[in-house]
Specification:
alpha+beta, 2 domains, two-stranded antiparallel sheet, 11 helices, globular, disordered N terminus
C-alpha cells in the first residue's frame, strides 16, 4: 500500500514538473514594455515565482499549508482583485531619478470588467488628478484606462502623485527588444532580476526559506569605496566599510535633515562633509544589571522609613568608529561631546553612557570603557554587514526590543561587496522548509 502511494506521488510529481516546464518557461515579450526614460528595471517572472512555490510544495507538502479552523459563520463571496486581473507571465517595474523618482511604475496589465468594483471593495480611495482617476491604498496606487492597469508603487510614504507624473505614463518611446538593458535579464533564470542603464545587475534567487541576491555593481556605481572590511565573529550587528559621502548626502531626505537638526542642533550636511565615509560598528551583546535603589519616606508620625527598590538596566555593548580629521573637533565645538568627571561623553545618547575617544583621523564611541574587539580583516571584501536577528530577539531587550511582522520571521541578514564590485546578500528565514515567497505574502 505504501509503495503504491509513493508510486502515485512520484508520477504526479513527474507530471507537474513536465507540464510546468512548458507552462513556466514562456517566451517573454520585451517590446512596448519599458519606456526609454527608465533608468532602473525590475523584472518579475511571475510564472517562475509560481513554479518555485509549486516545487516547494513537492519538497515539503505539509509545511507549506497553514491549517485554520473553519469559521462557523458563512462568509459572503466577494469579488477579489486577482479574480479581475489577467495575471501576466512576467511583469516589469521601472523608475528613474526624474519624473518617476518616488515610484516604481509597472507596464500595463489587462484587467476584467469588474476590476474597479474589486478596488472599491478592497477600500482603495479614488482621487482625480489631471483628468485621471487614481485608486490608492497604502503604498499602492492604480491607474485604470481602457481595460488596462498600471501599478504605481511608492518608494516612501510621503510620495505624491503629481499631474506631471500621470502625463508621463502616456509613453511614445520604448526600449527595443535587443536593448542592452535587457541583455542580462534575458539570460537569467532567476524569478526576480534588476538591471540599470549604468550596468548594475542583480538576481534574486529563492532556496526554500532563504533569499539570495547576487550580482555586480557598475563601474559608475561608487557608493562603496575601496576598503578592507572587518568583522567580529561574536557580533549581533556588524558593519564595516567606506561609503561615498556625496551619494549618502544626496540621498538624505530633507525632512530627516530638518528633524535631526531640531533634535541635536547638528547639521547632517556638515557631518557628512567632515566624515570621510569610513564606518565600523559592532553590537556584541547586552549587559544586564540590577541595582538596589534606597529611598526614604515619612509615615504619619513623621518617622523615617527606608524603602528599597530593585532597578534593572539593560545596556547594549556597542562600539562605533568614524573617520574624518575635523569630525571630532566639530562635535566638541557643538558641545555634543563634553567632558564629564574627566571623561569625554557623547551627550546625544540619553539611554546609556557613551564614551568618546578622539583620534587623529576620526573618533570612536563605546558603551563600555576599555572594550577591545578582535577584528578579522577580509582583504577580498570592501563592505560587510551582518544582522543576526534571532540572537537579538532571543531575550527581552527592554526598551531596545522591537516587533515587526516580517523581521520576526528572519534569522539573519547579510551583505557583502567584494573589491571587484561583486555583490552577495542573503536573507535567511527561521522557517527553512516553507517557501520564502509564501512566508512574505502571509
Amino acid at each position: 500500500m505504501i509503495k503504491r502511494i509513493a508510486l502515485i506521488f512520484a508520477v504526479i510529481c513527474c507530471i507537474i514538473i513536465t507540464v510546468g516546464f512548458f507552462r513556466y518557461n514562456p517566451t517573454v515579450i520585451y517590446g512596448k514594455k519599458v519606456p526609454t526614460s527608465a533608468e532602473t528595471i525590475v523584472y518579475l517572472s511571475l510564472r517562475e515565482i509560481e513554479y518555485n512555490i509549486l516545487l516547494s510544495f513537492l519538497k515539503h507538502p505539509f509545511s507549506q499549508l497553514d491549517v485554520k479552523k473553519p469559521s462557523t459563520t458563512k462568509e459572503e463571496k466577494k469579488t477579489t482583485l486577482l479574480d479581475e486581473v489577467e495575471v501576466p507571465n512576467s511583469l516589469f517595474l521601472y523608475t528613474n531619478t526624474r519624473e518617476f523618482k518616488d515610484f516604481y511604475i509597472s507596464n500595463p496589465i489587462s484587467v476584467k470588467q469588474n476590476f474597479i468594483d474589486a478596488l472599491k471593495e478592497e477600500k482603495f480611495i479614488a482621487q482625480n488628478a489631471s483628468k485621471t482617476t487614481v485608486y490608492s491604498k497604502g503604498m499602492i496606487s492604480c491607474v485604470v484606462k481602457d481595460n488596462s492597469l498600471q501599478l504605481l508603487l511608492k518608494k516612501h510614504k510621503k510620495a505624491q502623485i503629481s499631474p506631471e507624473l500621470l502625463l508621463t505614463l502616456n509613453h511614445k518611446s520604448y526600449f527595443s527588444e535587443n536593448n542592452l538593458i535587457f541583455e542580462k535579464i534575458k539570460s537569467s533564470e532567476a524569478p526576480v532580476a534588476v538591471s540599470t542603464l549604468e550596468g548594475d545587475f542583480f538576481e534574486f534567487v529563492v532556496d526554500g526559506g532563504s533569499l539570495r541576491i547576487r550580482g555586480e555593481l557598475s563601474k559608475e556605481n561608487d557608493l562603496f569605496k575601496p576598503f578592507k572590511a572587518a568583522s567580529v565573529a561574536s557580533s549581533i550587528i556588524s558593519v564595516s566599510g567606506k561609503l561615498n559621502t556625496e551619494i549618502v548626502a544626496n540621498e538624505l531626505d530633507e525632512v530627516l535633515k530638518k528633524k535631526f537638526k531640531e533634535l541635536t542642533t547638528l547639521s547632517l550636511d556638515s557631518i557628512t562633509g567632515k566624515w570621510d565615509g569610513v564606518v565600523e560598528g559592532n553590537l556584541t551583546s547586552f549587559i544586564e544589571k540590577s541595582d538596589t535603589i534606597v529611598t526614604y519616606e515619612y509615615d504619619d508620625d513623621f518617622n523615617k522609613v527606608e524603602k528599597k527598590e530593585i532597578q534593572n538596566t539593560i545596556t547594549p555593548e556597542v562600539t562605533l568608529e568614524l573617520q574624518g580629521e575635523d569630525l571630532c573637533s566639530y562635535l566638541k565645538e557643538k558641545e555634543v561631546i563634553k567632558k564629564v568627571e574627566n571623561e569625554d561623553l557623547l551627550t546625544l545618547m540619553p539611554l546609556f553612557t557613551t564614551y568618546s575617544f578622539c583620534k587623529e583621523n576620526g573618533l570612536k564611541f563605546a558603551s563600555v570603557k576599555g572594550q577591545k574587539l578582535i577584528k578579522e580583516t577580509d582583504g577580498n571584501n570592501k563592505f560587510y554587514f551582518l544582522f543576526n536577528i534571532t540572537d537579538y530577539q532571543q531575550k527581552d531587550r527592554g526598551i531596545y526590543s522591537f516587533k515587526s511582522k516580517y523581521l520576526n520571521k528572519v534569522n539573519t541578514i547579510q551583505l557583502l561587496v567584494s573589491n571587484n564590485n561583486q555583490l552577495k546578500a542573503a536573507v535567511e528565514l527561521k522557517d527553512t522548509s516553507k517557501n520564502f515567497f509564501l512566508q512574505v505574502l502571509d
